[in-house]
Amino acid sequence: MAAIGSLVFCTDCGNLLPSTKGTERNVLSCECCGAENRDTGSKSIVTQTKPSDFPSFLRQKLQSNVQAVEKHNIQTDSISQESCPVCSRENVKYTNVQLRGADEGSTVIYLCDCGNS
Fold first, then answer.
1. 32 annotated as a binding-site residue
2. Residue 106 belongs to domain spanning
3. Is 1 in the same domain as 39?
4. d(CA 50, CA 35)
5. pLDDT tens readout for residues 24-39
6. Which 3 state secondary structure label does DSSP give 73?
7. Residue 64 lies in a domain
8. Residue 30 lies in a domain
9. Residue 69 falls within a domain, yes or no?
């Protein structure tokens, strides 16, 4: 009888035997030829591997250094040469926001230091 993983095969005809019971003392009978075979599916083989045994570009990419970014520290504004209609400043900040569907243009929001937007 041969065992591949938890599958056990008959030594006489090579038929797949019923599922293993988990101990070596059990006897499995072949449904095809009627031969009785010892249950060797209970033997377990333990192997150990390391990630370095299987090098790949994806694994190297996943192990790259990733920086944590805090949402309140992200600077999304840019400075434009537009003038503010309230305080007449020449430089105002602006940001692009997608308010509608993806097939429509983004909305540009201008924000001055005086609070006008």
1. no
2. 75-111
3. yes
4. 42
5. 567 888 888 888 887 7
6. helix
7. no
8. yes
9. no
The verdict on whether residue 112 carries a ligand-binding annotation is yes
Phi, psi of 62 (to 5 degrees): -70, -25
The C-alpha atoms of residue 117 and residue 114 are separated, in whole angstroms, by 9
pLDDT in tens, 31-85: 888 888 877 765 666 778 887 777 777 777 776 666 666 766 767 778 888 888 8
pTM: 0.35
Give the gyration radius of the chain's Cα atoms. 35
End-to-end CA distance of the chain: 81
φ and ψ of 108, to 5 deg = -100, 125
Residue 50 counted as domain residue: no
How far is the CA of 73 from the CAs of 65, 69, 108, 110, 114, in angstroms? 19, 7, 21, 20, 21
13 labelled binding-site residue: yes
33 annotated as belonging to a binding site for a ligand: yes
Q: How many domains does the chain have?
A: 2
